[in-house]
Every structure is written in C-alpha cells, then in structure tokens.
Write a structure and sequence with these properties.
By secondary structure, this protein is an alpha+beta fold. The protein has 18 helices and 24 strands. Helix content is about 30%, strand content about 20%. The strands form six sheets. Strands 9, 10, 11, 12, 13, 14, 15, 23 and 24 form a nine-stranded antiparallel beta sheet that branches. It has a four-stranded parallel beta sheet with strand order 2-1-3-4, with helices on one face. A four-stranded antiparallel beta sheet has the order 5-8-6-7, sandwiched between helices. The C terminus is likely disordered. Bound molecules: adenosine-5'-diphosphate.
Length: about 575
Amino acid sequence: MAEKECGFAPLVFRLHGGAPLVVREVLLERGWEEYDEDEQEEGDWNLYWRSSGFRNSDYKNILPWQRLNHHLKMTHITHKDYLARHLRRMKSAFGAALYDFSPAAFILPNEYTKFLGVYTKNRTTDGGKSCYWICKPVHLSRGRGIFLFKDIKDLVYDSSVIIQRYISNPLLISGYKFDLRIYVCVKSFCPLVIYMHQEGLVRFATEKYTLASLDNLYSHLTNTSINKFGLCYAMDKERVGRGCKWTMSKFRSFLHKQDINELLLWHRISNIITLTLLAAVPCIPSNPNCLELLGFDILIDSSYKPWLLEVNHSPALSLDCPADVTVKKGLINDIIDLMNYRMMDGFRQKEDLRKRYTRSGRWYLKPQIPLLPKTLHATPSGNRSWNRSISTSSSSQDTVLCSVNDCARNNSRYASRPVHPNSKSTMCSGHEKAPQKLEKMNIEVESDDLKLTTLNSTRQAHRNTPSSVFKLPSLHIHKLKSPTVPWNRRTQDRDIPPCRVGDFILTFPFNEATWKASQDQVDVKAIVNEVRKLTNRLGSSFNEKKRTKADSSQSCNAVRDKFEFLLWGPKDPPLLSECYSSNSETK
Ligand code: ADP
C-alpha cells in the first residue's frame, strides 16, 4: 500500500496531540507509518497534522517533501470578528448585492453604539416583531456561550462578542432546523486554488424549531456538541431519524424529491466560499507545502438562500455516528490525494542528505547528488522515451527505480518498477554525473503509475552540466490523479488544477480569466468581477424554462473554455458549461 502511495519507502505522518484519530486511521490504512520521535530524525516525515496552528519556525524549516495541514494566519477568516470585518470591507468595496450572504454583524463592545442604532431602527420600523439577534463569544466555538435575544435588555456579555442578525426563517425538515457543514480545501493561496468537497454533513437541531422559546438551544443551535446531549438525540425523529446528522448525499436526494434546483444552490454556496476566501487572501502568506481544510457553516433559509454563519479552522473530525464515518474517512483520503504526494516524497533522506540542502528562498540540492536523473534513449521503435532512475547515497535506501516504456499504452506513458541497485540495467547507467535542473524539465510523476510525460530541450541542455543547480521539482504541481475527469482532457495547459480529486470539486479558478488573475499576486478585483459575470450568466440560465437536451448539448459545444469545472450533483456532477443555456452564452 505504501508503495502504491509513493512508489518507495512508506510515507511518514506526524500527529500532534489532539489531532483527529481518523487521520491516523486513514493514513495507516494507506500504508503510511507514524513518526516516532525517538527513532526517527527530525525531518524524517512527510505530513505533520495539527488541530491547532503551527509555529512560525515550522514553516521556516519545512523541507521539500513535507506538508503541513495549516497555512499561516488563517485566523483572518476563522475568527468570528476578523471574518465579520473582512466581509464588511468587501461589501463596501464590491457592493452589497454580491456580499449579501452573511448576516449583519457587530463586534462588541467596540461597536455597541453602531448596533444600538440598527437595533433601534428595526424596533421603530416594524415594532421589532421580526428581528432576532444571536450573540456569540468571539473566541469560543462549538456553540459555547451562545444565546438568542430579541430585546436589548437581555443582552449581557462579559467578553468580546459578535452580535449577528438571527436568520429566523430557516429551511426546516419536518420542523427541525439544520445547517450544512461544507468541507473546503484551500490547496494554495497564490495561485488561489480552492476545492469544495461534494460530501459534507447536514447537522440538525434535535427539537422542533420555534421562536416561542429562544432559550431552547436544542431547537436553535445545530452544533452536534450540544445536540448530542439533548433528550431527543437518540429518538427516531420524523424524517430526520436518530441522532442529528445526515450525509450530504442524503440531503441531495431529499432536495431531488422536493424538485429543488440544487445546482443553483451549489453554485451560490461555491460563490460564498470563493468570495469569503477572497476577503482574506491578501493577508495570508502562500506556502506551497501547506494546505488548509476548512469547515464552512451554511444555513439555508426558507427561500433557499444560503447564508454563511462562520468558517471553522480544523473542523471536527471525530467519528460520532455512521454519517461521520462515511463522510470524514472519505474526506481525509481525498485530502491526502489532493496533497499530491509523489514518489520522490518517499525519499526523505536522512541527515546526510539534509545537509546537502541549502536554503536560499527555495530548497536546492547540491549538484553532486544525482537524485532523479533521467536519460533519454531511443526505443527499438524509434520513439523517444525517458528512463528514470533514482539513487541515493544512503546505503539502506540504495534503490534504483527504472521506468519501463509501456509502448502498448502510449509513447509518453511509462510503467515503473523498482529494481535492485546492483541491477546491470543499461537503462540506468551514466546518471552519476548528470545532475539536472528538474523544475525546468517540467517533470510529471503521478504517484500510482509513475507516468513521466513531458520533456523539453532544457532538460537535454542541462543533462551534462555538472555545475547546474539541481533543483527539486515544486511540490505544488497542480496535476493530480482525477478519477472522474482525467487531467488535461481537453487542454494542453499543464498548470491548471484538475476539476476533481476524489470528491473534491474544483471551485476556484473557474475560468481562464480567474486562473490568470490569481497567479503572481491575486487580483481580487478582477476575480470578483468574474464571479459577478458568472453569477449573472448562471442566473439568467437557471431562470429559463427547462431546456431540452438538444439545447444543452448545443450550449456545451458553444463554451470554449479550458475549464471544465463541475457543479454539485448526486454522483457525477455535470460540467458547469452544461448548465449554461445557449441564450446566456450569447450575452
Ligand atoms: P460556534 O463556532 O460556536 O459553533 P456558530 O456561529 O457556528 O458558532 O453558531 C452555532 C450555531 O448557531 C450554528 O450552527 C447555527 O445553528 C446557529 N446560528 C449561528 N448564527 C446564526 C444566525 N445568524 N442565524 C441563525 N442561526 C445561527
């Protein structure tokens, strides 16, 4: 299994105390090994998973084969007060029409007067009948310290809190309130690459919703940490069933039965995710060795409008019920796939190799180490093919891997097999003196079958240049195995992230313009404009009467975009391009 993951030595994970057990379980199942402080050297791991944030030094000292499960400064969107401030700023910069997805919020005590003004205005316009507020301590989570109020005299607080307009008309299922936990993975902040997981959770309150009793938390809050202590938790509740969670699949089939246009809902949710992350992007330093899993809490109101309640750093990954097991195990597996471990990540070279790295902005391997050299040779058929060999100076890890041209598949794809270092294969000869600048060589290695696909003349030029700097390929190459939509199906663009990795669906970038605008420095304004355009386009498309199949295929052909990004669907989400009507295309 380990060989399947990286083709070589087992990958090693490191868990900080308190890290979710499901992470350990999934990684062990995949053949990883757990890091042992006493036995292994300091840098001898591939993934460090913590529930809390890392120290600055963890980012500074990161090695090329290592990944961390958090980016720096994520508090910009995961702290309730920061998030409220950022969204307010975006609203005033880009308009309330686009940024209308978060309930009005005030951070107290600082904004007490502002809140008082809005509260009073509401009271005088409609007598305060329809306005409810929810008060949440800024630094607490899992529903702790939250209460609802209608009358300001009931507002009592002794720490920094956020007062949010309470969405008092939630969509109910058999009278029960629920919200959606959407799992989002930010693969990179620059370029911005966001994936949304198709399989999330629906979290129910366990007592029927009523505004008559604002202090009944089992009726108003959907946190599992609260509801699992409710008297009705274990009861078989009408339609909802036992417990307080559904998988997203179950929810989607519920929507289908209600004849609800879930694609539009999904699109709105993915817009919320993109627009929210855009608010924080300029504040978050990008690090290609980090990735972030976030939990977006979305409440749907009775008119099917989704609202963002908050963004969770380290969303709960405990396995409390069958829905958790289904969703979270799949999620972790997909995250590992998204992390894009490659064969070379199994080459955590011990201290002797580490010493050969010097740091100057990025990591370089000194030229004398012939890691991952390749030779070009001609096959009997006259086709060019690359053979790959890897050797290390560590005797225990002296292994050579040669790729074998798999002519039957196609000329650019290669099957690989590990061979003994002493094997006298001519395919692997002559590597010792040929360090190469791998990044320029544009090497692709897919973890499962070691497909080596591209080469260019730069590679040849560097092959016999011992003095050239031997640079490791970037860990952040955006080509991952995509079971549903093969990478690069229609385009030769090598850098655009795949539409789908497991159940992770590419949410951003969603077209070439947004891809370009998120490259060197994220151009928030340009991206927001693209989101606006897409929203208008989809809005008009969805508003049309049901299209015939012919219309649909016509419109699909009309879209000439390299991005085939997907929308939410029960099993195989349709391409976004398939959701455009030909009408809207011409606009
Ligand atoms: P916490 O971090 O403590 O979980 P949340 O903001 O997620 O805080 O709120 C907890 C729960 O309270 C949510 O899951 C939701 O059910 C309910 N809730 C929070 N804000 C609102 C709101 N503005 N309108 C309606 N319900 C809300």
